[in-house]
Amino acid sequence: MSTHVVGLDLGGTSVKAVSLTRQGVELARGHHPFDLEQPGAFVEAMKTALSALEDQVGTPAAAVGISAPGLAARDGTCVAFMPGRFPGLAGLNWAHALHRDRVPVLNDAQAALLGEVWCGAAQGASQVVMLTLGTGVGGAALVDGRLLQGRSGKAGHLGHVSLDPAGRRGITGVPGSLEDAIGNHNIRQRTAGRFDTTLALIHAHQQGDAEASRVWLESVRALAAALTSFTNILDPERIVIGGGIASCGDTLFLPLRRWVAEWEWQVGAPPVAIVPAELGDRAGAVGAAWHALRESAETESSGG
After folding, report:
1. Any idea what the CATH number is for the domain that residue 61 is in?
2. In terms of domains, do 51 and 73 share one?
3. Crossing angle, helix 198-206 and helix 250-263, to 10 degrees?
4. 269 and 125 in one domain?
5. CA separation, residue 211 to residues 58, 137, 183 (Å)
6. Residue 116 within a domain
7. What is the pLDDT along the chain (304 residues), one digit of tens a residue?
């Protein structure tokens, strides 16, 4: 009987892959670039990634899971909705593509959350919110130990909460979103063209640039308002923050924790913990592996 599971995380230019034991111990990992302009290249990269890990470990994987952008189908067989990107991804049945009986698919932010719950910053927690701060703001939530998915699979897109009804409409149609308040995608607009990246803005803030500090702290304050709102809606015990912007450490976490502590509704429970993600770019692959392992165990226990 095979003792390892594999998670494959499909990114914009590469596949990140990881093999783990059923206890979450990493056995091998891989990184396989592809050219999205080449038809089918990402499918071949996924096949190569899986084959390479199985060769390294020496046995076929007991279960394989996929993390990918877009909304996963309710039956988990494919990405059902991925507008404007990844030609050929939407509707592609991954079990057929990888020649396996079952390959469950999850949205990448949801998979990252499960990875942090299994092996990272949220181990042992059953009420967790995760945000990834990068080009946009990804999100996911674990409620009573179960991944929040909703009727269409879009639940947990916390970056698209509206903080300003008078703001411009974002990619989901929501005005004044959290993503527009702190995401890297519109940093030039938010800084009147001064900065090309959020990390450059943060560096200027750290160097004492008053205008950079104003813009950065305004963004962090917006994030704090959103997180405080999430504590009232979902009541998490832990909020995990990942993504490239979170790499600035205390420059983000100190003011963020201060504002959330000031605004959080205290009802006798311990205050929410706001912690950095631990798995980095492995989180999606690790979460996809855990999701596949759990689904496989549920199938076995039901006699399926």
Report:
1. 3.30.420.40
2. yes
3. 90
4. yes
5. 56, 23, 18
6. no
7. 578 999 999 998 999 999 999 999 999 999 999 998 999 999 999 999 999 999 999 999 999 999 999 999 999 999 999 876 788 999 999 999 999 999 999 999 999 999 999 999 999 999 999 999 999 999 999 999 999 999 888 999 999 999 999 999 998 999 999 999 999 999 999 999 999 999 999 999 999 999 999 999 999 999 999 999 999 999 999 999 999 999 999 999 999 999 999 999 999 999 999 999 999 999 999 999 999 999 988 776 666 5
- Alpha helices, H only, 67-186: 94-97, 108-119, 178-182
End-to-end CA distance of the chain: 17
* Angle at 266 (CA atoms; ends 155, 273), nearest 5 degrees: 60
259 and 294, same structural domain?
Answer: no
Residue 184 falls inside a structural domain: yes
From CA 128, how far away is CA 231, in angstroms rounded? Answer: 10
Domain of 24?
Answer: 4-107+284-301
Place of tokens 């080009």: 135
Q: 284, 244, 287, 283: which is closest to 108 by C-alpha?
A: 284
pTM of the entire predicted model:
0.94
Say whether both 141 and 23 belong to one domain.
no
SS (H, E, C) 112-137: HHHHHHHHCCCCCCCCEEEEEECCCE
